[in-house]
Design a protein that fits this description.
11 strands; 53% strand; mainly beta
Length: 189
């Protein structure tokens, strides 16, 4: 009995001091999307087709950090003409600002799982604080790769004019942009 209790104590101690695991974003199973006003009469929706990044996550404590890169040139509104406009100077100006990045730390742990990511978004050459609400974060063994994988669903709303993207503001477009991010990441080992 004493041996069993000692072994259980070692397992608990080992779990409490577990190191964060590094996860690589799976771009084929990640869907960063956006919703933006069009003249107050409709909502334009789209997604970014190219994203990458790394997550460090300690499941034992719910702590960790992440760094994500999105290529604005991959913005896809489902309409070729609008995609081309979005790449120009009026919106993303992808020649001058080819990348958008988000760096953050997991925050507000409830039941061992973070419910937010507090970080900074750099978009269009401007860096501002942005908090992502995590609707969920869950990790499971990947059935084919035999490594840990995690998935999350996150949401936030930004004011695009605060990032220097104010096209349509003079025509009373709402500057709110809702970002919805469904992400999957696989442990590197």
């Amino acid at each position: 009995m004493r041996l069993a209790l000692s072994f259980a104590g070692l397992l608990i101690a080992g779990t409490a001091h577990a190191a964060p695991v590094t996860y690589k974003i799976d771009p084929d199973h990640t869907f960063p999307s956006f919703e933006a006003d069009h003249m107050g009469i409709s909502v334009w929706r789209g997604k970014f087709n190219k994203s990458s990044g790394t997550v460090h996550y300690d499941k034992a404590t719910g702590s960790g950090d992440l760094e994500i890169t999105v290529l604005p040139a991959s913005a896809d509104f489902g309409q070729d003409a609008l995609n081309k406009v979005a790449q120009g100077k009026e919106l993303f100006d992808v020649k001058k600002f080819p990348k958008a990045t988000y760096k953050g730390k997991f925050d507000k742990v409830v039941g061992g799982v973070p419910t937010e990511v507090a970080g900074e978004l750099t978009l269009h050459g401007v860096t501002r604080p942005v908090t992502l609400k995590l609707n969920w974060l869950k990790c499971i063994p990947h059935p084919m790769l035999k490594r840990d994988m995690c998935g999350a669903d996150a949401i936030t709303t930004i004011q695009r004019d605060q990032f220097g993207i104010d096209a349509g503001k003079d025509w009373h477009f709402n500057m709110d942009v809702t970002l919805r991010i469904q992400v999957e990441a696989v442990a590197t080992q």
